[in-house]
Amino acid sequence: MSTKTDANRVTIFDTTLRDGEQSPGASMNLDEKLKIAELLQELGVDVIEAGFPIASPGDFASVSEVSKLIKDAVVCGLARSSRGDIDRAGEALKPARRARIHTFISTSPLHMKFKLQMSPEEVHQAVVDSVTHARRFTDDVEWSAEDGSRTEHDFLCRCVEAAIKSGARTINIPDTVGYAVPEEYGAVFRMLRERVPNSDKAVFSTHCHNDLGLAVANSLAGVAGGARQIECTINGLGERAGNAALEEVVMALRTRADSMPYTTGINTKMITKASRLVSTVTGFVVQPNKAIVGANAFAHESGIHQDGMLKHAGTYEIMTPESIGLTKSTLVMGKHSGRHAFKVKLKELGYELGDNAVQEAFRRFKVLADKKKDVFDEDIVALVDDEVMRRHDRVKFVSLQIVCGSRGAPTADLELDIDGEVRQTTATGDGPVDATFNAIKALFPHEVKLQLFQVNAVTEGTDAQAEVTVRLEEGGKTVNGQGADTDTLVSAARAYVNALNKLLVKREKTVPKALSA
Ligand code: KIV
Ligand code: ZN
Question: What is the DSSP string of 145-210?
């Protein structure tokens, strides 16, 4: 077994904003992406893949704005092997302090024949041309062999050799379709390091999808085989069954350092916050029994386990909740708590808000404390996230009165502030949620498809705040809106209005200058 040295430091490459965002329905707007990028930086990730600039003006803007914002981590943009893709990535990454272009092409027989309709020789030439061209923009070029785990070894060696010779510093071997098993995936890295000339001039990287539930195991096997970069996402977000979950690979390496002597630069105490933010923004709820960040990951229900825990936490806990930033749900404040205590609490929870935002959050906290006996940290997080999320909204929720039950049609009496003017209407529907959404449509006419309506309790108890996610679709574009309140219907109205605002921004968005030039 090797020892802990710098040679055993594993680079954490986060692709939540690129591969993660490719999950159907997980789209994020620019503000949300910037918020996530900032948190990823605080979390200590080494590389942030911020988007695929050629894919859309939104992706271009994401890479460009993240490049302006992020000072510590490397910012990366994805590009296929064409010059157009690479030029666009280079352009978007211009403001970055440390920029990486990640260029890829498929190398498996199946992909080359059916997807690319290119011969192996043409693909090999494309590797040379793409990496050489990308090096004109930055020294930090990563090359990926898409469907690498299903590529013939001799051809993979030739392509990797060509990529390194052309100037790629990182070589990524994706298990694009989540087909590999750990032993075989680890062996690919051993084979490449042994057979490819100058393999020591590049860092090898894993990129595993979770179709067989093996993404984390495969990533760790890749590291054991010599890879020193893991590509992963928060909560395992990603195409189909997702990517390797950042929190799982990092905590596995940390908790089992005895058998895997590798280190990362991750501040694990930020994991819970990052997981919650990504879940809130995307509306992808974390399953309760999910490793590390699931609501039950540190819950001990059975009598035997509880007894063991009381005697010694190590009996049933292999890592502490504190190590992932999960603080015990503390009773914070009640309706008599003052502004100063509230500000201190916000700081403790990691929020740096301007005076106006603090003022508004404090006002809502007071309203909440009046309605709810116990106010927990989670309540404050939900309330502040809700507030921050709707800062720039054109349409704002003002009030809602619902009459519903088993005797007659549900009625919603709603007030919205639209462009600074408060408007009121009453509408009925097939249920109170339908009546509420009909009232919104009456005040602000629009045609959209409701794709998702999801309710989550923020804490336990019947007085808990309800966090509602609403996903709307218009012309193939989806947006997620969130709302939190002790009244589920008020949360629903807030969430719908929030999503509507995001659609308005999407509609109005013009092509960024760099693309229209
Ligand atoms: O899964 C994959 O192959 C990818 C590449 C673009 C790196 O996401
Ligand atoms: Zn992928």
Answer: EETGGGS-HHHHHHHHHHHHHHT-SEEEEEETTS---HHHHHHHHHHHHHHSTTGGGSEEEEEEB-
